[in-house]
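Two proteins were folded this term; both appear here.
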Amino acid sequence: LQGAGGSLIKMLRASVLAACVAAATAFSPSALPLGTATRKATSGPTMQLYKDGKLQGAGVNCIPIFKRPDSLKGDMVGDMGFDPFRVSSYANMQFCQEAEIKHGRIAM
């Protein structure tokens, strides 16, 4: 009976070790085939600016029927004046930006 129990423990240890190795290899990079070289892009998508870059940031009003909130100054990335519930008037936008980045990283 002791021999059977010892082999069961060895088999359990081996299966746990195999599972750990399989999990570790899932996050390792795969090898590239021989003969492949990296190339630089010679052409690609271009940046499209709103009205040729004349109205950016503070000049853009996302919802034309509403006045742009005074608390949005157009100095943050992606600030197009979209704040229909006026959250920017009572919340610190730098804190909200940091919280959004943190939540996005956790979600990944």
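Next, the second protein.
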Amino acid sequence: TDKYPGDTSWELISLVTNMTMYSSGYRKYNLEGYIYDELLCVPRNETCYELRMYDSYGDGICCSSGYGYYEISYKDALVKRVENFTSSEFVTTFGPGCNMTNSTTNSTF
């Protein structure tokens, strides 16, 4: 986490069912500079997922707020490591049914 861990939250969405499978909610994280490890179990029949990272203040994990990062692993393989995103929402899609060539975008929902 960065200097303001309470600003950070996330949700994991199945792009097959378009439903939120897991979410952290705001204020779950409270230790500055701490590495949190979340282990999630996803159904075998789901083939494409979207991780949405949020920052309630809107400055992401970056810069004057301190540096943080997040990693996504799927089936014991690192999919993506994202450091210092500056948007308030950052989307990463992953899974065998996704188009992996354009798997990461900054967006506003």
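Residues 14 and 49 are 5 Å apart (CA to CA). The chain has a mean pLDDT of 79. These notes refer to the second protein only.
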